[in-house]
Amino acid sequence: MAARAFHQPYFRQRLTEGGFKPLYFLSPTYFRTFDFDPEQYFELQVEQYDEQYQKHFLLQQLRMLRRFVVVTDTTDLRFREMIETKLYDATLLGMATQMTYVTAVRHIPGIGEWLAWLERRFFATHAHDKDFQEQGVQCVLTPGMGNFNFWNEGNFTLEAQRMRIPVFAAITNYDNVVNMGYRGFTPNCLGVWSKQMADEVIKLHRYPSNKIEVIGAVQYDRFMRPLLLSREEFLKSIHLDPAKKTIFFAGGVNINHYFEIYRSFVERKGRLLNGNYNFVVRPQPHAKLIDSPGWRIIEKLFTQAGIYVSNPGSIDASGDRGNELRLDLGLTNEQDELNYLLRYSDVLINNFSTMGLEAAICDLPTIYVGYDAYTFGVRFGVTTRFQQRMTHNRRPLRLRASKVATSEEELWLHIEQYLSDRTIDREARQEYAISECGELDGNAADRLMQMIKTRV
Fold first, then answer.
1. How much is the mean pLDDT over the chain?
2. Which of 12-16, 58-62, 323-327 has maximum average pLDDT?
3. Same domain, 417 and 375
4. In 10 A of CB 173, how many CB atoms?
5. What is the pLDDT, as a whole number, of residue 320?
6. How many Cβ atoms sit within 10 Å of the Cβ of residue 86?
7. Given the DSSP bridges, would you call strands 245-250 and 403-405 parallel, antiparallel or unpaired?
8. CA distances from 96 to 27, 72, 73 (A)
9. Is 226 part of a structural domain of the chain?
10. Is there a single domain that holds both residue 428 and residue 443?
11. From edge to edge, which strands make up the β-sheet containing 403-405?
């Protein structure tokens, strides 16, 4: 399951209130970190799935092709990124052959369905058959549709379907339909966020319209609930001054952007409001960034300069990520810091990530960094040019709801505009949020429960 969507306290509460007895199959990363109730928690057999994947070259090729047969600007960019990654390790003939056949195959009508059928037919798994029988599982809820980044959930789901167990799925991120490749299975019903997403699933995945329901975004229900702390109380709790404006930077995996931000907001801090503002940095919790030596350097520079670093992927001296995993699973009573930052900051600076949508939901003005001060030796896949060409980042509504800074000077200008008048682009932010998320009433989890109950 997608932990931050389906394992939060409010969602677990909705399950039990809806008359369900939930059983959780967690990846080894989570399952082996904590002591869970053995009657409710089970280990997802990721190692068996990975072993099968590594063993069969054909399976690797089928999944690689499924990754790219949903033809969008995003998957085109991802294909080029894959080529760039392999370029120096492959022979010229081998690379040219792969580029040619993938380019040809991905445009064949109906190829996605055929690839998924081959995978189901020849690479069936049975890792959880015994669990389904012994626990009397009556239905399965999973994120994704067995596409890229959801291979393990897809294997698990197909095992359930072979045993005639009803399967339900819900999309857990706004780019999953256009970015993650062709689906691997058809659930009894798929919960999507909005009409826009439903249209994309039907068009790009040849998905039957009678098996789709618009339910909203479950993980964003929390933004509709009142916060326990006031703005003053929260900012004081992280040692910031409530009397000052708060600028929030949420970066991506490109370490260079953090050094750019350090130069702008630490070394040149006096250029804005005479330096009299709060500044918050939140790194993307991805191993490419958090585990890099560069991040350790820049994090220390920020903290030494008095900048608050809101780090969801922090690791203690022993290398333990337990605190991060507790937050993922909702096993801690700590406050949802990201929720507070999105609701109480005055402007967000971002690198075209999901955070921009979350900011729009919370009516937080957003500026996207649309330039790279450093590009030497940087892979294309982490540049702003790459991000700006992706399908979901080119939506006209998204661009109207925010500002794109093409230089450092423009970045300062847009910040000054939003700090002087927060209502700028407010209507566009609301329209963009609704177009992506559908109803924003805090009841997406209830609609998902109802979707399942009416079809079991």
1. 91
2. 58-62
3. yes
4. 19
5. 54
6. 12
7. unpaired
8. 37, 22, 21
9. no
10. no
11. 308-309, 277-282, 245-250, 347-350, 366-369, 403-405
Spell out the alpha helix ranges (H) of 282-347.
287-290, 293-304, 322-329, 337-344
Give the range of the structural domain holding residue 322, as residue numbers without chain letter.
231-437
Q: How would you classify the pairing of strands 366-369 and 140-143?
A: unpaired
The tokens for 283 are 């790194």
Beta partners for 143? 170
Q: Determine the residue type at 156.
A: F
Assess if residue 443 is contained within a domain.
yes
Residue 42 to residues 8, 30, 39, 58, 230, Cα–Cα distance (Å): 17, 10, 8, 30, 39
**Residue 12 has which token pair?**
């677990």
Q: How far is CA 85 from CA 16, 38, 137, 380, in A?
A: 46, 42, 42, 10
Residues 368 and 424 in one domain: yes
Residue 402 pLDDT more than 50?
A: yes
Which two structure tokens, joined as six digits, stand for 220?
Answer: 């964003």
Cβ-proximal residues to 8 (8 Å cutoff; 6+ apart), any chain: 219, 222, 330
- Please give the tally of structural domains in the chain: 2
Whether the model pTM is above 0.85: yes
